[in-house]
Design brief:
Elements lengths: L14 E3 L5 E3 H5 L4 E5 L6 H19 L3 E6 L3 H11 L5 E3 L4 H5 L16 E6 L3 E7 L9 H15 L8 H8 L13 H7 L2
Parallel strand pairs: 3-4, 4-5
Antiparallel strand pairs: 1-2, 3-6, 6-7
Length: 198
């Protein structure tokens, strides 16, 4: 991983085609929520498949917890769709078939010239693509467990949600005054919130 990609740094806002072929930026997919970003080897890899099977249940929790999940691999569009469907995922999968991200982040897995995948990493990103934690998954047990990601997301949410503790005196006083700017959805209308859930 490039030496400047460390906790506290801003992760690059890559634009890549999703599983439907539509170009999406990471910031567009993240919106204002925490994001777990999985940089995967690809659908051919049994370790990736097992990791993503574990993420299925967590993704259901992330949806109700207002967090996002994105997978990027070097698979082409057809392989990306097969990978996503094969594990039953409902979150966006992006294709880096041109190895743009792989080269830019300096994570080419040189030990597998046949597939030329990325060295797998999982990143937990705070809003605005700020890096909170990076896991190197070249070895399977270097990848985060579902429980580790839950703990990371709890820590990130405590940092980025002003209404994490609504029992505080400040939050109660603001609510009593009718000031809901520091309460989710932070000034958005119900229509805007629903539009963000696609």
């Amino acid at each position: 991983m490039r030496s400047d990609i460390v906790p506290g740094a801003v992760f690059p806002d890559y634009a890549l085609p999703d599983h439907r072929g539509k170009h999406r930026t990471l910031s567009e997919l993240q919106r204002s929520d925490p994001l777990v970003l999985v940089l995967a080897r690809g659908g051919f890899c049994p370790k990736d498949r097992r990791q993503h099977e574990g993420l299925l249940q967590l993704h259901r929790e992330m949806q109700v917890g207002y967090c996002r999940l994105v997978t990027i691999s070097t698979d082409n569009l057809l392989e990306t769709n097969e990978f996503r469907a094969g594990v039953g995922a409902l979150w966006p999968f992006l294709s880096d078939a041109g190895r743009k991200l792989q080269k830019d982040l300096e994570i080419a897995e040189y030990t597998d010239p046949h597939h030329n995948p990325m060295i797998p990493h999982t990143l937990v990103l705070e809003p605005a693509l700020r890096v909170y934690k990076i896991y190197n998954g070249y070895w399977f047990f270097g990848r985060p467990t579902v429980e580790e990601l839950r703990l990371d997301l709890r820590a990130v949410l405590q940092r980025c949600r002003p209404d994490w503790d609504i029992s505080s005196a400040e939050q109660r006083a603001a609510w009593a005054k009718g000031d809901n700017t520091n309460f989710y959805p932070y000034g958005k209308t119900q229509t805007q919130v629903l539009a963000d859930q696609d």
